[in-house]
From TrEMBL:
It holds the Pfam family Sulfatase. It comes from Catenovulum agarivorans DS-2. One of its GO terms (molecular function) is iduronate-2-sulfatase activity. Gene3D superfamilies: Alkaline Phosphatase, subunit A. Coiled coil: none annotated. Belongs to the sulfatase family. One of its GO terms (cellular component) is cytoplasm. This is Sulfatase.
Length: 554
């Protein structure tokens, strides 16, 4: 009996040792598997949205209907203070895609190619391609007219798989509006000649036809995106896939069902809460006359935007945001359907913010918070495994996307970029981070809507009256400094955002060592809307921040 008991104990102990070894082996196997997963190349879904300010649910909007972006944020990290390097499409996208600042690239308006100075600069998709990836895109990733097709992409869009009856749509779904656009364009060319080709003569600013999503460009691109993504997966290599939404860029057009998501009284309430006057003691050159919006046929050429039209514009913007959200949801679902979601990093960003009546203007193209701050969300296999939304208030820049994408995808880091990988913030959102975020914009009041200096012919259009008014305001503010050529061509506004302040220094771009023409300071501790310039009252803060700014721009 004693012998049998000893034998039984030995067996039990042996079984326990075996079970322990098995558990230890399983744990080691799991750790090895996790290590392999964290080091093998990962796919990247790179989602770009045009002109989207942080008016979405994930950023606290009480009105925007954005369930798909919000779901992405719920399993990722939301950067609450992310800033564009310049609040206009071309320079912002050039900076993001190359990892270089607008001044470094010498791309500060929409009418210059980003390779004009550095012909061999390596873009994000190029870097991925050189590390064994297929790179493809659908929609707007680079700025229109500078898509870098030959260098940055190696995998074709699946246009051959699109149904014959599903063609890339015209701007408007309603034929009457396409006809109106053509007629208005002819009228502008008849009146203003060559000047009209720079953007005058557009159709209505809004449309909400009762049509399927693919009757507008972003819905069509979602259809094309699903098919292209399937082909990328089928190719069997890791992929970098850019999915670029054109909306909510003007004109604000989306299917009727997205307009119907919003109650007009609720939209009106958001407008009523919008501060629609320029900052007290702000720079006269810092705000423009809503030039881009005024190129549309149903918007007043020079008069104030009527309340009824303002309501329609805000409503249409929100409809476009919800329309875009739906297309993004479709592409994320396509990742799941293709079985690659679990090994894909998703990066969502907007190229800049947008004034919707804020400070009295409609459009991007300023150095203020409302134009420079953007939604920026990253979702990775690790953040999704945590099962909870992460947020960080760290000051980050869109310039940081390039190195971040490389590190999260487990490929070598780029060596030429000026940004910083944000991976430490994904590991710990409270990590101490940058002291400031830097943005810039040249004299918004005296630039066309592509940030290009005013062409002589622009003064001969209906904008001439507005230009004269702006010039008179600037001359009145700077009677001893005013010079038309200097203020049109050589003034660059540099905007420094810190934890508590925004400093804007209007400087001579030909001599950055000179004293600024004007300085604005906004104290975000008490004035998050940037309603009052306190530079003359907080001179010590101005001196401190100017020292930081000079270090960053020289």
């Amino acid at each position: 009996m004693k012998h049998n008991l000893s034998k039984l104990i030995a067996i039990v102990v042996g079984m326990s040792l075996v079970a322990g070894c098995q558990q230890q082996a399983s744990k080691q196997d799991a750790e090895v598997k996790q290590t392999v997963e964290q080091t093998q190349p990962r796919n990247v879904l790179f989602i770009s949205i045009d002109d989207l300010r942080p008016e979405i649910g994930a950023y606290g909007s009480p009105i925007a209907k954005t369930p798909n972006i919000d779901a992405l944020a719920s399993k990722g990290i939301t950067f609450t203070r992310a800033y564009a390097q310049q609040a206009i499409c071309g320079p912002s996208r050039a900076s993001i895609m190359t990892g270089l600042r607008p001044d470094t690239l010498e791309v500060t308006h929409n009418y210059v190619k980003f390779r004009h100075k550095f012909r061999d600069v390596k873009t994000i998709p190029q870097h991925f391609m050189q590390n064994g990836y297929n790179a493809s895109y659908v929609g707007k990733i680079f700025h229109h007219g500078d898509k870098d097709e030959e260098n940055s992409w190696n995998f074709p869009q699946a246009t051959h798989l699109m149904p014959e009856d599903m063609q890339s749509p015209p701007i408007y779904a309603l034929e009457s509006n396409n006809k109106l656009r053509d007629e208005y364009k002819k009228l502008m060319f008849a009146k203003y000649g060559e000047q009209a080709k720079y953007g005058l003569g557009r159709g209505p600013a809004t449309e909400g036809a009762d049509v399927p999503d693919y009757e507008y460009i972003d819905g069509y691109n979602a259809e094309l995106g699903e098919r292209t993504l399937a082909e990328l997966v089928k190719a069997g290599k890791p992929f970098f896939f850019g999915f670029g939404m054109n909306k909510p860029h003007l004109p604000w057009i989306a299917p009727k069902k997205y307009w119907d998501m919003y109650d007009e009284e609720a939209v009106k309430a958001t407008l009523a809460q919008t501060r629609q006057v320029a900052p007290k003691d702000g720079a006269a050159m810092g705000l423009h006359a809503s030039f881009e919006l005024r190129t549309f046929s149903d918007v007043p050429n020079t008069e104030a935007i009527p309340d009824e039209l303002a309501l329609q514009l805000k409503h249409s913007y929100l409809a476009c945001v919800s329309y875009v959200d739906e297309q993004i949801g479709r592409i994320i679902q396509a990742l799941k359907d293709q079985g690659v979601y679990d090994n894909t990093v998703i990066i969502l960003w907007s190229d800049h913010g947008f004034h919707l009546g804020d400070m009295g203007i409609w459009g991007k193209a300023s150095n203020y918070e409302i134009a420079t701050r953007v939604p920026f969300i990253i979702s990775t296999p690790e953040t999704r495994a945590q099962g909870q939304a992460l947020k960080t208030d760290a000051l980050v820049e869109l310039l940081d996307i390039y190195p971040t994408a490389a590190e999260l995808a487990n490929i070598p880091m780029p060596t030429h970029t000026e940004g910083t990988s944000l991976k430490p913030l994904l590991d710990n959102p409270n990590t101490k981070w940058k002291e400031s975020a830097l943005s810039q914009f040249p004299t918004p009041a005296l630039r066309e809507w592509g940030a290009f200096p005013l062409r002589p012919g622009m003064r001969e259009t209906y904008f001439g009256e507005l230009i004269v008014q702006v010039e008179q305001s600037i001359e009145q503010q700077f009677p001893h400094l005013w010079d038309k050529e200097t203020f049109e061509q050589n003034v660059m506004g540099y905007s420094l955002r810190t934890d508590d302040y925004r400093l804007i220094a209007w400087m001579n771009s030909q001599d950055k060592s000179a004293e600024p023409f004007y300085v604005e300071l906004y104290d975000h501790r008490v004035d998050p809307a940037e309603s009052t310039n306190v530079a003359t009252k907080q001179t010590q803060q101005v001196a401190r921040l100017m020292q930081i700014l000079r270090t960053r721009i020289n």
